[in-house]
Amino acid sequence: MAVEYTWPPRDQTSVLGGSHNKVDGTAKCTGAAKYSYDINPDQMLLARALGCPHAHCKIKSIDTSAASKVKGVHLARALKKPGDEIRWQGDLVAVVVGETEGAVAEGLAAIKGDYELLEVFVNEEDLKAAEAAKRADKSGGKVQLQNEPEDENKDFENQEIERLFKEAAVVVEGYYGIRAITHMCLEPHGSTCDWRDGKLTAHLSTQNVSGTAGQFAGPLKITTDDITVHCDYIGGGFGSKFSADSWGTKCAELSKELNRPVKLMLDRDLELKNAGNRPSGFANVKIGADDQGVITIWDSHHWSTGGFGGGSVPQDVMPYVIVPPNFRRRVTNVKTNTAAARAWRAPNHPQGSAMSQTAIDDVAAKLGLDSYDVFLRNLVNVKDRGDVYAEEMKIAAKLIDWKAKWHPHGKGPAQGSIVTGLGMAIHTWGGGGVPSGCLIKIHPDGGVESFAASQDLGTGTRTVIAIVLAETFGLPVSAIKVNIGSSKLPASSPSGGSITVASVSESHRHGGLDALAQMKKLVAEKLKVEADSLVAKDGRIRDKSDPSKGLSWKEACSLLGMNALEVKGRGAPSPKSKLSSSGVAGVQMAEVAVDRETGVVKMKKFVAVQDMGLVVNRKTAESQIYGAMIMGIAGALFEERILDPKTGAFLNAEIADYRLPRLGDIGELVVEIYEPDSERARGVIGLGEPPVISPGAAISNAVCNALGVRVGVLPLTPKQVLDTLKARKA
Amino acid sequence: MNPTELSAHGKSGVSRRAFLKGSGAAAAATALVHGPGLVAEETKPNVVSVGLNTITLDVNGKQQKVDVEPRTTLLEALRLGLNLTGAKPISVDGSSGGSTVLLGGKPVSANSILALECIGKPIVTVEGLGGNSTAISGEIAVGAIDPVCRAFVNHDASQCGFCTPGFVMAVKAFLAKNPKATEAQIREGLNGNLCRCGTYANVIPAVVDVVKGARNGS
Ligand code: FES
Questions:
Q1: How many folded domains does chain A comprise?
Q2: Is B125 in contact with A463 (Cβ distance < 8 A)?
Q3: Residues lining ligand 1, judged by CB closer than 6 Å?
Q4: Ligand 1 center to residue B158 CA distance, Å?
Q5: A129 falls within a domain
Q6: What is the pLDDT of residue A298?
Q7: Which residues, including other chains, have CB under 8 Å from residue A239's CB and lie 6 or more apart?
Q8: Lowest mean pLDDT among A118-127, A228-237, A452-461
Q9: Are A186 and B96 a contacting pair at CB < 8 A?
Q10: What is the ipTM for the molecules in this complex?
Q11: Atom in ligand 1 nearest the alpha carbon of residue B163
């Protein structure tokens, strides 16, 4: 019997698509879940690193002699040599290992560094200054024009663009941007490394359990078979924890050298300075549109920094989603004295959105049109899923009561100094699965286990796997024992780019159906029926139409004999797979209240309508969207990396100084999952990234709608708002 | 920048934050004399008993012996001394709420209080809420764990979960004071805890549920 790799239709599911508690929710909510930071092997020593106080310098000397003598300190060591160049504040220059936090801190304080200061540049927003400092580097772009030059006209591009702007009913020019932020994982980067008898166990806080083990081999001079990376729980990653990192392998080396387990986690400030930031993005944009707001020509130049090595928000996210037939986009990379940027949830999309869907809203403002209508008309300029956006817009508008609440930009009623406004944005993401192995075991006594290296970032990986296998075998979710979090298990994909849920759903469903086919064969032989006539449902393998004809799961498993049935899940999803696919839309609408006197923006209501193919667990899917919206509110209204322009010092690298939303800041959030049969039929698609993209533009547009003035650069802090209002008056 | 922070590795102006980060015994000595309930006298400002001492802490209803230095924070004593790792080190000064425990019934950040200051006062950590089981299961019987934990699980109020134990303890303390809290009061009163994953929208209905449950006597 050929196995058909599909999902059951909606009306024939038992647990798939329902709302389930996370299987590890209790462990997380009672403190029983152990994170890398929480692993305390016997005899463990503590290590901390020292960050360089300067953003750009040459090391003259790092003197650890006094630190070595501190009582309770076992080792103090420089991580850099004289002559080494430091290119951002906080780069690790020394490490101290000791018995207690106090001893280690005292050791760190006793280290003397001598540095030769070099020229610092950190203000990438000021492009002229970056050029003057030779930190800017034009890195390309793209021009697409519908018309072709008639002859050898060298200036065709400029002339054609000029012509298109002349023909446009309206031209809008603006400056937009979004400042750099950090990942701010609440569990900082780091590990507890345990070297024993020539083997290493690294309890590493990682999004990449399978991929990091090998990174320890070289530094420890062993091969990967002697290494286990272990991570049951991770306290946040958001794209910054794919690598073992220099401090991870250092921790392992120290454990080997001292022959004791060592814990080395970054301090909060070093975490923010070193271990993950998202590139900023600033853009000059000029748009031409017809009198209905449909964009005909786009011309933009954006610049940003990915850190000391340059890099930037790439050109292809400008303009974002809505791409007119004629456009020109240019990019400049700026090098700053900051740590290298890392992938941050939906890499580059939030910046692209914040720099372009704001400009589109300014077209609506200039024409005095309803933003909803302008976005809707511009769906002609969307390449994929235009119909899905249109449907999602309808639903979102209803949920936020757009029609009743809408007023033209700046024309709403004021209550004292408070004005309100509406804004929207649309986004897209891939989220397809990648090769990810698994092993499924069915024991003769009925027990079911699954094994995959993988990891759970908070999406509920364990729960997704349990639901998929429970649905496949007709068992309750609690009957499936899911094992993840060790590099000794079948290799899985890293968790990033929203690929995990599609990957593990694909491989576990695939392996599960193969295992079930074998179980059905055994039952069919026993009952002398056709295997094709059997289904697994309600804890039985039984006849499709006559539930009484069959065996209980346990009886069926007893047919296995002595040994467990072991089946491997298929690694790679094929492009034709019905189990998973890639590519989603998504619409968000925000309602804000702005105080013109204080500049404070308050979230009133925020609606997200999101498609994701087939929903595996409704409860955790909704949580992902809520979480992404809140993270988006953070970037829109609160968080930014603040650097001292002269010294390059990271001024807000502690939680008390780095503003993030708190529970009282989020307003009313509404989530609607868009899952008609047409979307469900596409199979599982990842969800973590898409809903984090739109908040910046949607909230900025709402603020603009309230004030009648664009506050160009996110976050829209009270100062940004007041400065913009003041500049407008002047 | 907070000017005292710049000199965290320097000689002067040691902030409470830098001190609690453990930056130097000299800082500890100076700060300790002003600490409540400690022995050093004003006249001998730089004398402090260094080294390990065994003290007894009243944690989750049990008298537990733990070795501490005068500069050991309650958080370090709990996590490293007693292997109670529910309270998390997230910020240096308690501004994340991640290390929240109850001390004498009141919420404190375990990383901004010294272990020595806690002698003789009952300490409740998240592990004391009766749910210290590593069992992986989605279904929880009423009474098996604290109603606050249970509501957090049922409302999926944890993602990565790193902030969650601190949040649970903050809610516990908040509800002890405000057993009939309205949703508006919940939004007002629980701003000491930071969650990066964005679970606030799930925490709010979880807390509302606990209030309702208490009212219904379940
Ligand atoms: S659940 Fe991850 S920080 Fe709150």
A1: 3
A2: no
A3: A 186, 236, 458; B 158-164, 195-197, 199
A4: 6
A5: no
A6: 98
A7: A183, A207, A276, A342, A343, A344, A345, A347, A496
A8: A452-461
A9: yes
A10: 0.96
A11: 4
